[in-house]
Amino acid sequence: MTTLATTNNNEIKSIENITSLPNSVLLSQGAEAKTYKIDLYGIKCIVKERFVKAYRHPTLDQKISGKRILQEVRSLNKCKKNGIDVPALLLVDVPSNRIYMEYIDGITVKQYLYNCFDQSKETSTTTTQTQTEAHQQQIDICAEIGKQIARIHDLNIVHGDLTTSNMLLRNNSKSNIVFIDFGLSYTSTMTEDKAVDMYVLERAFISTHPNSELLFKEILDSYQKNSPSPKVAKAILDKLDQVRLRGRKKLAFG
Amino acid sequence: MKTYPIVLYPGYEITILLYKDVLNTKDIMTELLKGQLEWAIINCKPIINHQQLLLAATKAVATLATGKLTTNNIHTELIFRLSPNTNIRESLKNFGLQNEDKEFYIVLFNGKQEKFDQIKSMVQGEQIDQSSHSLDTLNPFFDKELSRKLYGINDKELKATNEDIDLLKNSIFNTMAIKGLL
Ligand SMILES: Nc1ncnc2c1ncn2[C@@H]1O[C@H](COP(=O)(O)OP(=O)(O)O)[C@@H](O)[C@H]1O
Ligand SMILES: [Mg+2]
Hints:
CATH class of chain B: Alpha Beta
Bound molecules: adenosine-5'-diphosphate, magnesium ion
CATH architecture of chain B: 2-Layer Sandwich
CATH superfamily of chain B: CGI121/TPRKB
Strand content of chain A: 15-25%
Largest sheet of chain B: 5 strands, antiparallel
Largest interface: A-B, 32 and 41 residues
Largest sheet of chain A: 5 strands, antiparallel
Distance between the termini of chain A: 62 Å
Helix content of chain B: 40-55%
Radius of gyration of chain A: 21 Å
Oligomer: heterodimer
Number of domains of chain B: 1
């Protein structure tokens, strides 16, 4: 029996297992969350479900993941309200640690860059023209990445996990970058925090896309050139130089 | 009349009716204010499609599950959940029934024939045939400007020149979802 009364609601529970919904698929299982694709009232929807870590205290854990969910949805909302393309929120279920959001149809920037690299390689079937085009596409997308991150930082949002896997291309179009995975994001006005954000991206970028130092430079150039506050962006990139140095020392001296 | 299950909460469903040319809204208001009605009467102008009602209904049941309804019953909670505003009176004013309304939605949770009959005898107006409507069919009474105003959706969010209805729809859903979490 279902109840509409406002008392004795212990029996009302959201479905335990997302995969019991029709047309649901598990897309990815990360270190902290599972991501599913479902159909929600005819809307293509992503469910991101953070799981409770068994080794931590359960109520403490609930509080920590509750906080993380709030950070994630607040950052998504702030981006969206400011015209930065991110998935729209559909439902936020804090007790179940679930975020329901718009499914973005399109490949990751990582995949896009891989495809370009394949085309830019010399093979018997590629022509010089496709090589040049593929190279230009890489440059274009890097310029777009830099520009959009500058806008995000201008809102004092630090993403926390900038990688080319956390950027999707709406309709596979290189001019429609959608940022996802704001689970580690936070609000900060500090130059240092934003510089570290860029450093995280740099490390991830260079290791995911070998020999891409010049492409990464395109991201940085565009970050500064297209920033709503170029002077601030310049200061952040100067800081990035220091952060790199520190990173290297850390590596050298443990 | 359309009935949909609330998929995330098995056992719950809503039925959506849409009325136009209603002649006795004032009488209905009187009944409504007595707090006797077992359904929600909803201003249809800021509602883009049935998906919007379903998302708000899901949130209303989710709130019921926590035992912390903000309002006094699930039907008022539905109206409250449609509104981006955390003020109950404002929410009911903008998303509930007003004296001068001639068209509106009626939404019931787990409705039964007896209640449908009561609604039929209560409303002097024309029930719109929604049998061909799907989940994302645009509500014929949708008022884009009003919706943008109520949900505070600016040009920046809609990327200024883009008039795409999908963008507006997403912004509405997003604004409902973030309610109370900022
Ligand atoms: N809104 C979305 N639309 C489409 N795919 C998504 C969306 N959100 C996540 N994904 C897919 O699920 C994967 C994991 O999601 P993500 O938010 O990055 O979680 P994690 O913290 O596990 O990396 C992404 O790499 C992407 O492929
Ligand atoms: Mg990720």
